[in-house]
Records
---
Amino acid sequence: MSFIVAIDGPAASGKGTLARRLAAHYGLNHLDTGLTYRAVAQALLQVGLPLDNEALAVAAAEHVDLARLDRAALSEHGVGEAASRLAVMPAVRRVLVDKQRQFARRAPGAVLDGRDIGTVVCPDAAVKLYVTATPEVRARRRHDEIIASGGAATYDAVLADIRRRDERDMGRADSPLRPAADAHLIDTSTMDIETAFRTALAIVDKARAG
Ligand code: CDP
């Protein structure tokens, strides 16, 4: 059995950084499942196909190759927005979740981060973390990231965007974002990344020992 760490949480909660660092620390594979939804969105956007046609989206999902997910190429804001619209489609989710489960099964195990890892993709994960922060703190982080990378955005627009994304991700019928019953909650609102990492390490170490 491979060792699986499931990490869920809303946009800009810090789950991605945590997932990468935990995977490196324990020598586990890492999958940012958000990139799989982004890859579907980008495939449709690139050739000007509509985002509301489930059959087209499923076909695009079937073509997603987990070994070829390019974070930089998928990082655009519009791609994330389109991804969250496609992510409400159950048939798209089924195709991607199947690929994510195959990834998780590979030895020696994996850290997966997303919205439904502890609840749907890997309900038997050895450790489940639910990483959150207030919308205001998350908007500040996302805003600072955009500015640091040379982009333009106002804090208010980023906050509105985060709230809209939260609503869509938490409100959808299929696999809404919510903590699994057995998830450990990590609220990073007043934590820097080092503190969040140490908090997560303590939880995972305990699970590995047990
Ligand atoms: O980092 P950010 O929140 O911008 O987005 P992401 O993690 O790349 O995910 C983009 C969108 O994909 C999310 O808003 C979700 O709607 C969807 N998603 C999902 O439904 N399930 C997952 N396991 C991961 C992402």
---
Amino acid sequence: MSDTLMKTYNRIPLTFVKGEGAYLYDENGKQYLDAVGGIAVCCLGHAHPAVTQALCTQAATLVHTSNIYQIPLQEELANRLTKVAGMDRVFFGNSGAEANEAAIKLARLYGHTKGIDTPQIIVTEKSFHGRTMATLSATGNRKVQAGFEPLVQGFLRVPYNDLDSIRKIADNNKNVVAILVEPIQGEGGVNIPDADYLKGIREICDQNGWLMMLDEIQTGMGRTGQWFGYQHSGARPDVMTIAKALGNGVPIGACMAQGEAADIFSAGKHGSTFGGNPLACAAALAVINTLENENLIKASANTGKAIVNGFKEALAGVEGVSEVRGQGMIIGVELDRPCGALVQQAIEDGILINVTADNVIRLLPALNLTSDQANNLVSTVSKLIKQFLSEQAV
Ligand code: PLP
């Protein structure tokens, strides 16, 4: 491996040279069923012809101009996204962290327009919002923050899935302007809150004039079996951030807003050189078209349910398996012990999985996974889990 890359990643010594649908292929031609999907990015799988064609056509026509000019593809994408998301306006950036930066800036500006000079945003424990200074400060994981102090001020932390602790802050703090939360915590361990959690947050925000801001970077674009995670609860946020699957691998992120929040930014308050350029927007439009044309939101719900049920059946009564959970195609199998070693064992069996929060096997496969592929995923990963737990017991 090259010495000229900064050492920000402990990379697995595996190189992929080709992708097709749910499969990746290494240098030796070995096939891997990909249940990582670039960490919730490749919602259509690899090399989907609709995205490939959109990219080739657009690259041959016009890759980039600038946000100082009109960009019709960006407007078309904003029109399509606002419709499926129930939002009014969109700002385009290039990543999840940038989308959240936009949301954080928007919330602060909202506060200042209300005469709050030191606006504060409520965030949660075990959250992940990105690696920029503001987003790592918002993140509820000390490992992500350590060494980067002083952190950005203005975040108040509460436990996830705990409405009472938010209510307590509401009683005592007049500087809060927003809550930023994930509908399901992805990096934090596929943590699915109670069914009334987002509704409760919506109510508290309404009562206090706070913005409800959802980080749907991992849960958006059909991942959970709805276009967006919030749609399971009906609690529509004021601000929502997306990225990851939006471009199926082409970097693009967005901060969307509705109602009063949609009119907070005025010219000069935020910007991005690359954000929403014609190439990225062409890819994202192809993603939206394909999700619709191939009925993949429903497929995500159904296949995800089958996978969760498959794991529940295969792992029933297995000591060491704490919980199987999931919503659509974000699936977690929690063990009672660290299980990072499973990643390598799965690679040997031709399956790519991810372990997060030390002890949660996280699966984020393409939404168009076939039932044969889903069955293979369940049987191979269940076998590996049982093997891993039995070896540990010896
Ligand atoms: N928010 C959530 C919920 C995420 O899962 C991630 C990435 O894992 C991010 C934000 C950061 O996105 P990016 O890596 O594109 O900056």
